[in-house]
Amino acid sequence: MKKLLNYKSALLGTFKKMGKIFSKIRNYFEESWRELKKVNWPTQHETVKKTAGVLTLSLFIALILGFLDFGLLQIMKLIIK
After folding, report:
1. Extents of the domains making up the chain
2. Is this model's pTM higher than 0.85 or not?
3. pLDDT value at position 40?
4. Would you list the DSSP string of the chain?
């Protein structure tokens, strides 16, 4: 009988700990959701405009690096011959 009471109290203690953990997880998501509601999201026009800018700049840098790589390769070929 005494063992059974020990098991019950241990089980209840475990459930209380799990309840606290799940409560903390739920609290985390509730706070995150509240913060997301406060965010000033960009409009679709702003998003498209900034995305186009990033893609243009990336392409420009890729072209510069490509030409630089090609030029240095040609110079190395001349040096090696």
Report:
1. 1-39, 42-81
2. no
3. 93
4. -HHHHHHHHHHHHHHHHHHHHHHHHHHHHHHHHHHHHH--PPPHHHHHHHHHHHHHHHHHHHHHHHHHHHHHHHHHHHHH-
